[in-house]
Write a structure and sequence with these properties.
Blueprint (H helix, E strand, L loop, with lengths): L15 H20 L5 H23 L4 E4 L13 E9 L1 H5 L7 E8 L2 E9 L4 E4 L15 E5 L5 H10 L2 E5 L2 H9 L5 E4 L5 H13 L3 E3 L18 E4 L1 H14 L3
Parallel strand pairs: 1-2, 6-7, 6-8
Antiparallel strand pairs: 2-3, 3-4, 4-5, 8-10, 9-10
Length: 259
């Protein structure tokens, strides 16, 4: 039985921000449905990846039939390199956390790259019931922590982050999903996310689009721009942080040869 995603808002016909938000949200709803089907472990992970990917591919084909798609769960069609518009999606970011009910730190990423840069994006955190997006960017609240907080992976925080934390007198906050880590900066849960342990374009495209729209600093760890829809989709590192921390973090990376 096909999941009934309903219809997007009428404005989604011409507004990519609205469509990205709707796509991420309904994929998240589908994932919550899968999560409630009684599966566990690898079966739950695989079912979630598959269900969200199939739904997003079907809906993008229906609502933006002329656009290309780059999905973590799909075959990379290099024809996208000749296209003006490419949707970059991670149907389920944080698969491990998704399978560990009732964890909330997993997400759906939907971004649109057009003519050289990201132009729209949405990150759904279904277990929170929220979708953060570029159409109505998050308003970053004033910092509530005296010490900087750096989001890191639960399972494999890069070694250099411990040295960075010592230099900034920062505390490390472990969580899953790259998207959740980026959005945590916009939510004042953390102040920075610094990663150099290996990622792909779909891990960061949508979160970076939202972070930029919210006024946060984004770059590679050496301070160079993040670039998307490249032939090689490996994009191993990034910084997302409050603007006032950017210079210190980039300087640390350059001095310590990280990346």
């Amino acid at each position: 039985m096909t999941f009934d995603a309903g219809s997007p808002p009428e404005s989604a016909a011409h507004d990519d921000h609205v469509l990205a938000t709707w796509l991420a949200t309904v994929a998240g709803e589908r994932l919550l449905e899968v999560r409630g089907e009684g599966l566990e472990g690898k079966e739950l992970k695989d079912a979630g990846d598959r269900a969200a990917h199939e739904l997003l591919m079907r809906l993008i084909a229906e609502h933006r039939p002329d656009d290309a798609v780059l999905s973590e769960e799909g075959k990379d069609d290099k024809a996208r390199l000749q296209r003006a518009r490419v949707w970059i999606v991670d149907p389920l970011d944080g698969t491990r956390e998704f399978s560990e009910v009732p964890r909330e730190d997993w997400a759906v990423h939907v971004a649109l790259w057009q003519d050289g840069d990201l132009v729209a994006g949405a990150v759904a955190q279904p277990a929170l019931g929220e979708t953060f997006n570029t159409g109505q960017p998050p308003v970053v609240p004033p910092r509530t922590s005296e010490r900087p907080r750096i989001a890191v992976s639960r399972s494999r925080p890069p070694e250099f982050v411990h040295a960075l934390a010592a230099e900034l007198d920062a505390e490390l906050v472990a969580m899953g999903s790259a998207g959740v880590k980026v959005i945590s900066v916009a939510r004042d849960v953390t102040d920075a996310y610094v990663h150099a342990g290996g990622q792909f374009e779909w891990d960061s495209a949508a979160p970076v689009a939202v972070a930029r729209a919210a006024g946060l600093f984004t770059s590679r760890v050496d301070g160079t721009p993040l670039e998307y829809n490249q032939e090689d989709v490996y994009l191993p590192d990034l910084i997302v942080c409050r603007p006032e921390l950017a210079e210190q973090i980039v300087d640390f990376v350059k001095r310590n040869g990280v990346g």
